[in-house]
C-alpha cells in the first residue's frame, strides 16, 4: 500500500509541476522539453528506478546520466540558435526526475515543499527579476552582514560566563543583539520594499518596530520643514510610540515569557491609547483638502556591524549596572536607573531585565522598571519633537507623548500600590 501511495503522490506532484510549466510557457511557440505529460513520466521513472528490489542506487544513477546526456544534447543544439539559452528548462526536467526518488526515500512533505517552491520560483520570474533590479549592491552586503551575525558569529560564542561582573554569557549577549537586529531588519525591509509609497502612516507603524526614537526624529524634521500633511505626520509620531510598547513586549517574550505576560496588559493598554489618538489625528488630517501624503525619509541601515558591537557593549554595561543598582539600592535603585536610561536607548535595559540581569528582582518590579524607562523615553521623544518641529506643529504631538509618559507613570503607581 505504501508503494501505491508513493506512486500516486509522485504522479500528482509531477502533474502539478508540469501544469505550471506549460502554463508559464503557453505563449512560447518554441519547442521545450517537459510539460504536463513529460514531468509525471520522468517522476515515475525516477521512483521506479529508485525502488528496484536490487537495493543498488546504480539504476537510478544510470537513468539520471541518460537524462542528463539527452538534456545536454538539447542545450547544445539550442546554443547554435538565437533563442533563450537559459538552463531553467533543463533544471525543471532534472527536478521532475528527482521527485520520485524524494517521495520514495523521505517524508512526503519534503517532496511537496520542493515542488511548490519550484513552481513559485518558476511562475514568479517577472517579479523576481523586478526585485533583483530594485535591490542594489548595498542591500546584498546588508543581507550578508545579517547572515554573519546569525549564522557565523552566534555558533562560535561560548554559553558560559566569562566574568564575575555578570552572569550573562557571550551567547546570551549576542542573542539579545540578534533579537533587536532581526526586528529592526525586518521593519527596514518592509519600509523599503513593501510599504506603499506615499503613505507616511505605514512608515510610522513599521518605524515603531524599527526604532520609535529614530522615527520620531525623522517625522519631527518633516513637520519642521512645513509638511503638507501636518496632522497625519503628527499621527505618525504618536503611532510610532504606540507600536513601541508592543515591540518591547514581543522582544521580552523571546527571553522571559512570564515577564512578557505581566507586561502585556499595561503595554497593550498604552499602545491602544496611543493608537486611538493617532487615528483621530489621522482622520482630522484626511479631512483637510490640501493634505498630500509623501513618504518620509527611508530608514537607515540597521545592521552596521559597528552598531551591533556598540549595542552588545551597552547591553553588558547596563546589565552590570542593573545588577549593581538592584544589589546596592534595592528595587528603588532599579527604578532610578530605569528613569536614567530612558533618555537614551532603552532596549539594552529592557533586555537585561528579560535575561535576568538583576537576579532576585520580582516580575512585578521588572514590569514597573520597563514602564518607567518607556515613559522616560517618551519625554525624550517629546523634546526631540519640539526641537525639530517647532512649537507650531510640534506642541501637539509632544504634549501627547508627555501624556502617554504620565499615563505610563500612573499605571506604574497603581501597579506599585498592588505589589
From TrEMBL:
Top-level taxonomic group: Bacteria
Keyword tags: Membrane, Transmembrane, Transmembrane helix
Database matches in InterPro entries: DUF4010 (IPR025105)
Keyword Transmembrane carried by entry: yes
Domain DUF4010 per the UniProt entry, residue ranges: 180-386
Pfam families hit by this protein: DUF4010 (PF13194)
Residues of the signal peptide: none
PANTHER family according to UniProt: DUF4010 DOMAIN-CONTAINING PROTEIN, MEMBRANE PROTEIN-RELATED
Protein's recorded name: MgtC/SapB family protein
Species of the source: Gluconacetobacter azotocaptans
Amino acid at each position: 500500500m505504501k508503494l501505491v501511495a508513493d506512486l500516486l503522490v509522485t504522479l500528482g506532484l509531477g502533474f502539478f509541476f508540469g501544469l505550471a510549466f506549460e502554463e508559464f510557457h503557453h505563449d512560447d511557440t518554441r519547442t521545450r522539453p517537459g510539460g504536463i505529460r513529460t514531468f509525471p513520466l520522468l517522476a515515475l521513472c525516477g521512483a521506479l528506478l529508485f525502488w528496484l528490489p536490487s537495493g543498488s542506487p546504480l539504476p537510478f544513477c544510470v537513468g539520471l546520466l541518460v537524462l542528463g546526456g539527452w538534456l545536454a544534447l538539447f542545450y547544445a543544439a539550442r546554443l547554435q540558435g538565437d533563442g533563450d539559452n537559459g538552463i531553467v528548462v533543463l533544471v525543471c526536467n532534472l527536478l521532475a526526475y528527482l521527485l520520485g526518488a524524494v517521495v520514495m526515500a523521505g517524508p512526503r512533505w519534503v517532496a511537496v515543499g520542493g515542488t511548490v517552491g519550484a513552481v513559485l520560483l518558476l511562475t514568479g520570474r517577472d517579479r523576481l527579476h523586478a526585485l533583483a533590479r530594485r535591490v542594489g549592491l548595498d542591500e546584498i552586503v546588508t543581507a550578508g552582514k545579517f547572515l554573519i551575525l546569525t549564522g557565523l558569529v552566534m555558533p562560535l560564542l561560548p554559553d558560559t560566563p566569562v566574568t564575575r561582573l555578570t552572569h550573562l554569557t557571550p551567547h546570551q549577549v549576542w542573542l539579545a543583539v540578534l533579537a533587536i537586529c532581526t526586528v529592526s531588519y525586518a521593519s527596514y525591509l518592509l519600509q523599503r520594499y513593501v510599504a506603499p509609497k506615499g503613505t507616511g502612516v505605514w512608515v510610522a507603524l513599521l518605524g515603531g518596530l524599527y526604532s520609535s526614537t529614530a522615527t520620531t526624529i525623522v517625522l519631527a524634521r518633516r513637520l519642521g520643514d512645513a509638511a503638507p500633511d501636518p496632522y497625519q505626520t503628527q499621527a505618525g509620531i504618536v503611532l510610532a510610540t504606540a507600536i513601541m510598547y508592543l515591540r518591547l513586549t514581543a522582544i521580552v517574550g523571546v527571553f522571559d515569557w512570564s515577564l512578557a505576560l505581566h507586561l502585556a496588559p499595561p503595554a497593550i493598554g498604552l499602545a491602544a491609547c496611543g493608537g486611538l489618538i493617532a487615528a483621530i489625528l489621522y482622520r482630522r488630517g484626511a479631512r483637510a483638502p490640501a493634505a498630500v501624503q509623501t513618504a518620509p525619509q527611508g530608514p537607515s541601515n540597521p545592521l552596521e556591524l559597528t552598531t551591533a558591537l556598540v549595542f552588545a557593549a551597552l547591553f553588558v554595561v547596563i546589565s552590570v549596572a542593573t545588577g549593581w543598582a538592584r544589589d546596592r539600592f534595592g528595587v528603588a535603585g532599579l527604578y532610578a536607573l530605569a528613569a536614567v536610561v530612558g533618555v537614551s536607548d532603552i532596549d539594552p535595559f529592557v533586555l537585561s531585565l528579560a535575561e535576568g540581569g538583576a537576579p532576585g528582582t520580582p516580575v512585578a518590579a521588572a514590569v514597573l522598571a520597563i514602564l518607567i524607562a518607556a515613559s522616560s523615553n517618551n519625554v525624550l521623544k517629546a523634546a526631540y519633537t519640539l526641537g525639530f518641529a517647532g512649537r507650531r506643529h510640534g506642541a501637539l504631538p509632544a504634549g501627547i507623548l508627555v501624556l502617554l509618559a504620565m499615563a505610563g507613570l500612573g499605571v506604574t503607581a497603581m501597579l506599585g500600590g498592588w505589589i
